């Protein structure tokens, strides 16, 4: 409990109840704090102009002081100082427009000098030729050198005071000498408490062999890393290349591992989202960096065109994909971002990550189950979304093999109800999140997601808006991902379990995958599945070995054999799908045969497991279906409520 104490003589007894803020010290107006510094800069520049005119005049007379008309020189110096100050104010030198000594301020100095010299020539003529004209022209150049020199000196003194000492920070070799490295080194050298002190640069570009960044020299290429680390007694190597892909990160990691130094990295471009690199961004190399990192370009204008100012709804918003979707969508300033999930804890976490409040008091946070048709209609009627990202799904392959009825109820019927509801409420654009398991499927998960792709294609044919599916592989950092599982096994002391020594998978970080999903939503499509380029597949055994080697204890790797319906190698495109990329170099667009929603009435979750899987397989692969019930369900009358309500697209009840 807090108690408000009133000092003797306190006259705030009539203050507003609950106002705990005292009067505090009187704040000095900003102009009273800023003007002395700006006036000092103008005075220094004025003195520099006068000194430049004196030097130029003496040089014009070959140093013969007796030939100099000092009274006229003093008068013209005062006039030149006034003109220079006025021009400087006009061009922003003394209005706080730029940081002191920056390139933009030097450019303003040039414009100021170019304006001052002609003006002083005219005034000198009016006043009766007080100094030689050639001296005035030369004085403009001398003044530019003097004023720029003063700024350079002040900036150097400031930087030297801020520069950290190698005794207090770790000595760092920076890999890369581009813009990212420049930002990193500038951040390191302008904080006295910086944990890092850059001592050398490495870059593979031959044109940068003599390059320096704030005095830090380029001392070789990546092949010279060992020699440079030993020569400068470095404690760490920082990979300062935000656009570096996983291949480059792995190559540099292999070079640094024998050197007994810490290996750090700056975030990829996708995480920086346009801002500059800071010291706080430097972090250890993660498994995501080694497996799924690459530069993903995005057409900001196209994306903003369908998101900015629109009402956007995300299903499965509390999941790993859905939550990252919400975070990135929020950056495009939608009119409303509706986050739907049946997991209230997931909604709480995503709200915290976006606005830092997590008060759960926003109507845009929607607790709902996509298997509940009535609830979906209520949500769509209230929020009237223009754009829908459907990320809600069950995704664990072994579990769905054991419980295929859950894949039917959530992945298939839930998606069908989302599509039907979106059509009834005139949604302009819908993006259905699919998986690479839907390409040439052989599992319940693959069958269910392939069926949703076909249902989405049928919805696109019947709807006035654009409805498409987006397919990609394993997402690093998502719940249940292989890295999460391996980390938990290492934490438990091992062993790490791998299904097969030769099993391979595609990997992409969750940020990169979501960025491409958002881009895919801007692509023109006709019910197609948009397949994200996942790069090259990675051997899971190599990932397991890398994680085991990095552990503090010996971790054994055990091979358990492929699980039922699990592939040795995943594919992103089916046998009849071509790699056609008309709109984006990392997004293929493949046609999908539509599937009439009426056939869902053939499905009964209470059917025997083997029979249900067989029908799912049939629906996933069949090009056309009869209207009569499938023999598997002959004589069966019981159906789930959603399946019984299923009707063809375009024929709404």
From TrEMBL:
Query: Transmembrane helix: is it a keyword of this entry?
Result: yes
Note the CDD domains from the entry. UDP_invert_4-6DH_SDR_e
The protein here is known as FlaA1/EpsC-like NDP-sugar epimerase
According to the record, the signal peptide region is none
What family classification does the UniProt entry report for this protein? Answer: Belongs to the polysaccharide synthase family.
Provide the Polysaccharide biosynthesis protein CapD-like domain boundaries: 312-588
Q: Where are the transmembrane segments?
A: 71-94, 106-123, 135-154
Query: Which keywords appear in this protein's UniProt record, sorted alphabetically?
Result: Membrane, Transmembrane, Transmembrane helix
Pfam families xrefs: CoA_binding_3 (PF13727), Polysacc_synt_2 (PF02719)
Q: Where is this region: Disordered?
A: 1-25, 632-653
């Amino acid at each position: 409990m807090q108690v408000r104490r009133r000092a003797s003589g306190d006259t705030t007894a009539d203050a507003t109840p609950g106002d705990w803020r005292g009067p505090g010290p009187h704040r000095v107006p900003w102009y009273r704090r800023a003007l002395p510094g700006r006036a000092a800069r103008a005075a220094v520049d004025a003195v520099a102009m006068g000194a430049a005119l004196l030097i130029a005049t003496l040089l014009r007379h070959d140093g013969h002081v007796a030939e100099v008309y000092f009274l006229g020189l003093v008068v013209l110096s005062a006039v030149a100082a006034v003109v220079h100050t006025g021009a400087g104010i006009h061009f922003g030198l003394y209005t706080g427009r730029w940081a002191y000594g920056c390139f933009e301020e030097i450019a303003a100095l040039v414009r100021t000098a170019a304006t001052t010299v002609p003006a002083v020539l005219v005034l000198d003529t009016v006043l009766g030729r007080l100094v030689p004209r050639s001296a005035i022209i030369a004085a403009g150049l001398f003044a530019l050198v003097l004023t720029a020199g003063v700024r350079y000196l002040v900036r150097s003194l400031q930087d030297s005071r801020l520069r950290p000492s190698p005794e207090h920070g770790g000595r760092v070799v920076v890999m890369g000498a581009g813009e990212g490295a420049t930002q990193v080194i500038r951040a390191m050298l302008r904080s006295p408490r910086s944990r890092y002190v850059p001592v050398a640069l490495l870059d593979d570009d031959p044109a940068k062999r003599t390059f320096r960044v704030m005095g830090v020299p380029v001392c070789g290429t990546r092949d010279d890393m060992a020699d440079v680390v030993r020569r400068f007694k470095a404690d760490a190597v920082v990979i300062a290349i935000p656009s570096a892909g996983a291949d480059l990160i792995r190559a540099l990691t292999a070079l640094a591992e024998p050197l007994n130094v810490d290996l750090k990295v700056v975030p990829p471009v996708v995480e920086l989202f346009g801002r500059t690199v800071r010291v706080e961004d430097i972090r250890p190399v993660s498994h995501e960096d080694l497996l799924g990192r690459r530069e993903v370009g995005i057409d900001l204008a196209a994306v903003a065109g369908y998101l900015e100012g629109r009402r956007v709804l995300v299903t499965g918003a509390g999941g790993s994909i859905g939550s990252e979707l919400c975070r990135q969508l929020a950056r495009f300033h939608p009119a409303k971002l509706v986050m739907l999930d049946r997991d209230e804890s997931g909604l709480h976490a995503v709200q915290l990550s976006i606005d830092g409040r997590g008060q759960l008091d926003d109507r845009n946070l929607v607790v709902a189950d996509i298997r509940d048709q009535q609830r979906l209609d209520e949500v769509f009627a209230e929020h009237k979304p223009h754009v829908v990202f459907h990320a809600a799904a069950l995704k664990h392959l072994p579990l769905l093999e054991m419980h295929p009825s859950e894949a039917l109820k959530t992945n298939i019927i839930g998606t069908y109800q989302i599509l039907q509801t979106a059509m009834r409420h005139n949604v302009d654009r819908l993006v259905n999140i699919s998986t690479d398991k839907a390409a040439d499927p052989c599992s319940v998960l693959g069958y269910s997601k392939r069926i949703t792709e076909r249902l989405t294609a049928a919805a696109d044919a019947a709807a006035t808006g654009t409805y498409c599916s987006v397919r990609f592989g394993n997402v690093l950092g998502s719940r249940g991902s292989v890295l999460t599982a391996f980390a938990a096994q290492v934490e438990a002391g091992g062993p790490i379990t791998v299904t097969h020594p030769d099993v391979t998978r595609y990997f992409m970080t969750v940020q990169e995958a979501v960025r491409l999903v958002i881009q895919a939503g801007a692509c023109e499509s006709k019910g197609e599945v948009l397949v994200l380029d996942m790069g090259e597949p990675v051997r899971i055994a190599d990932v397991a070995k890398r994680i085991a080697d990095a552990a503090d204890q010996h971790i054994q790797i055990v091979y358990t054999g492929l699980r039922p319906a699990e592939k040795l190698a995943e594919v992103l495109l089916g046998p009849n799908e071509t790699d056609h990329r008309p709109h984006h170099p990392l997004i293929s667009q493949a046609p999908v045969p539509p599937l009439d929603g009426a056939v869902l009435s053939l499905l009964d979750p209470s059917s025997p497991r083997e029979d249900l899987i067989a029908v799912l397989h049939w629906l996933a692969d069949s090009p056309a279906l009869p209207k009569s019930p499938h023999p598997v369900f002959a004589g069966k009358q019981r159906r789930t409520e959603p399946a019984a309500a299923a009707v063809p697209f375009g024929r709404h009840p």
